[in-house]
Amino acid sequence: ASCVQHCLVVRDASSLQVRQIYTCLDQIQYLEWSSDSLFILCAMYKRGIVQVWSLEQPDWHCKIDEGSAGLVASCWSPDGRHILNTTEFHLRITVWSLCTKSVSYIKYPKSCQQGVVFTKDGRYMAVAERRDCKDFISIFVCSNWQLLRHFDTETQDLFGIEWAPNGCVLAAWDSCLEYKLLLYSLDGRLLSSYRAYEWPLGIKSVAWSPSSQFLAIGSFDEKVRILNHVTWRKVTEFEHPATIASKKTIVYKEVEKSPSVETERLFFPPTRALASSLFSTQSKYEISQVPVSLQYIKPVADRANPKMGVGMLAFSADNCFLATKNDNIPNAVWIWDIRKLKLLVVLEQLCPIQCLQWDPRQPRLALCTGTSRVFLWSPAGCMAVQVPGEGDFQIVSLSWHSSGDSMVLLSKDNFCVCYLEREEV
Fold this sequence. Notes:
1 helix, six-stranded mixed beta sheet, mainly beta, four-stranded antiparallel beta sheet, Centrosome-WD_assoc, Methylamine Dehydrogenase, Chain H
């Protein structure tokens, strides 16, 4: 599904043929599929309205108007039959049921980076709250939206919460002004707290491994710390130095080369294909000889949100690899072998990394750098793929299909779908 102003266009994922076109009341600012792909939510925050469309019944639609309360966020519940709307100033979360048309309210949600999270099985929801100048967490049962547990957290300014994939442990962390990570059980018991250091800026990113055995914490000191699920103590820490000296680490460097054109083929005026090949550049990877010095950017200390520290973390689907990006070295991706707890590969790009995401089915990493190329890495090697087409298609974001056979590439104004051939087993 994609939106153009107030029009919602639904296409077939394999052929991109248009299946349905829906017209909304205003410009769409957010859209989201239900978990069973039967409904699409379209949020228009400026008007405080959410419209829901059905694929099975194109004539059916639902309109939710929050009125004077306003709207700043909207999302589906895991069952795909309830919609959670957050009102302006985070006064409350309204839970709307598409089946019974009933309404439930959750008061005092906190305005933070990650304040509403569901367990992977969809049974429970955790909400970060702020009451009487203190932080709380409420856990709800998603089947009937009854409160299961409500407890306060030992945080100064709760910044985010995240369930482990197995749904047994909830991680909560403080703002960057204080390094503190807390781990709670489903019944609200504090299992452990972790603090790596005290005074400098603290946690910047957090990621669970798919097996729930490891918790990776990226911080402003340019390190990633790995906690284990048995004692919740640190297993190891990964540093991100500007110089790669180990001979056991493979450094792939992106290089740009102009294609060679035979002089006999040159004539005026050139053909369209020849002209495009003359002025286009091709990108590929070359293996660099260690030691390799990466481009290091010193952050501006007197500005808010400094570009420093580990801002991106992602585990592969098989738990074997961890990809990280240190914002001080914006053009590099670090890939760590979790089985051996060591650095395996560094990808050095020509432009800063915009987005990276693992294939949901196999250890294959895709990343983009704001250019017209998408880059892929797997244990077999890496490659750069040029997006065909006219014009400058600058990829700023990407998203894998759940099957791992294709991915959507997004630019500022357009999108395209990249199909990958599946290897025969």
